[in-house]
């Protein structure tokens, strides 16, 4: 089994790469940071690719040829986070141009034969101030799942929707503020804590192997969207 994980050098993508490689899959991850690519675990191949650059994405898929599973796990980070009226227009565009549009362009180019799993976010279905741009971008990804599943069949198309996960996404906050934020979020969740990237990776592995699941969005948010 060959798997390409775009955005696989840290956080959820890296956790997924490690999990699938441990299962015996041939895993190729992409990223923009050469130092992170150089430090990947043995058995995980790395490709330096900017997922927002169409020519680099096209080159990646020309090199890989066909493969069974595609995981799209990169994002623009916290760009676009904040009250809408305080965001610069560039930050709003970045929410889409750093994730939504590149996801679709990657799907357009990839010769994938069995499944595509996209990482969105629970903000797409929540009412949390300061997430308007991110919710719109992730909501667009989630809305694309069903028509993609119909259009690309028999290739299965699904998404996971993480909530608050302890990953480098939160690095824009100083450590003490991040921990305080995690404590506050955890106290509001049925699960009682924020999540770990390995828990989202486990959901992605499930969707890759779930041969009768397509067109679905799997929340991995500790109950955030039902709390």
Describe the SSE topology:
Layout: E1 2-6, H1 11-22, E2 26-31, H2 34-38, E3 44-48, H3 54-64, E4 67-72, H4 89-109, E5 112-119, H5 132-152, E6 156-162, H6 175-188, H7 197-209, E7 217-220
Parallel strand pairs: 1-2, 1-4, 2-3, 4-5, 5-6, 6-7
Helix pairs in contact: 1-7, 3-4, 4-5
Q: What is the general shape? A: globular
Radius of gyration from CA coordinates: 17 Å
Tell me the fraction of residues in β-strands, as a range.
15-25%
Distance N terminus to C terminus? 38 Å
Number of domains: 1
CATH superfamily: NAD(P)-binding Rossmann-like Domain
Which consecutive residue ranges, at least 5 long each, have pLDDT under 50? none
What class would the helix/strand composition place it in? alpha/beta
Q: Which fold does the CATH topology refer to?
A: Rossmann fold
Helical fraction equals 40-55%
Mean pLDDT over the full residue set: 93
Total beta strand runs: 7
Largest sheet: 7 strands, parallel
| CATH architecture assignment name | 3-Layer(aba) Sandwich
Lateral strand order in the biggest sheet: 3-2-1-4-5-6-7
**How do the helices and strands follow one another from N- to C-terminus?**
EHEHEHEHEHEHHE
Query: What is the tally of helical segments?
Result: 7
* CATH class group: Alpha Beta
Structural commentary:
By secondary structure, the protein is an alpha/beta fold. It has seven helices and seven strands, in the order βαβαβαβαβαβααβ. It has a single domain, classed as NAD(P)-binding Rossmann-like Domain (Rossmann fold). 43% of the residues lie in helices and 18% in strands. Strand 4, helix 4 and strand 5 form a beta-alpha-beta unit. Helix 1 packs across helix 7. It is globular and about 45 Å long. The mean pLDDT is 93.
């Amino acid at each position: 089994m060959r798997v390409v994980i775009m955005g696989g050098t840290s956080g959820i993508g890296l956790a997924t790469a490690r999990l699938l490689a441990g299962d015996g899959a041939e895993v190729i991850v992409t990223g923009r940071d050469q130092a992170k690519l150089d430090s990947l675990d043995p058995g995980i191949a790395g490709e330096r690719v900017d997922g927002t650059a169409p020519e680099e994405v096209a080159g990646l898929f020309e090199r890989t040829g066909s493969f069974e599973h595609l995981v799209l796990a990169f994002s623009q980070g916290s760009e676009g986070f904040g009250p809408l009226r305080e965001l610069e227009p560039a930050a709003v565009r970045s929410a889409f141009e750093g994730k939504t549009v590149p996801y679709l362009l990657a799907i357009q180019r990839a010769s994938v034969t069995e499944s595509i799993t996209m990482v969105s976010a629970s903000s797409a279905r929540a009412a949390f101030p300061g997430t308007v741009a991110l919710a719109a971008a992730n909501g667009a990804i989630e809305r694309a799942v069903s028509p993609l599943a119909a259009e690309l069949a028999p290739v299965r198309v699904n998404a996971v929707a993480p909530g608050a996960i302890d990953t480098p996404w939160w690095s824009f906050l100083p450590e003490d503020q991040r921990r305080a934020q995690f404590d506050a979020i955890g106290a509001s969740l049925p699960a009682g804590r924020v999540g770990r990237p390995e828990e989202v990776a486990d959901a992605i592995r499930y969707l890759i192997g779930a041969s009768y699941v397509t067109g679905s969005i799997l929340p991995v948010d500790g109950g955030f969207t039902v709390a």
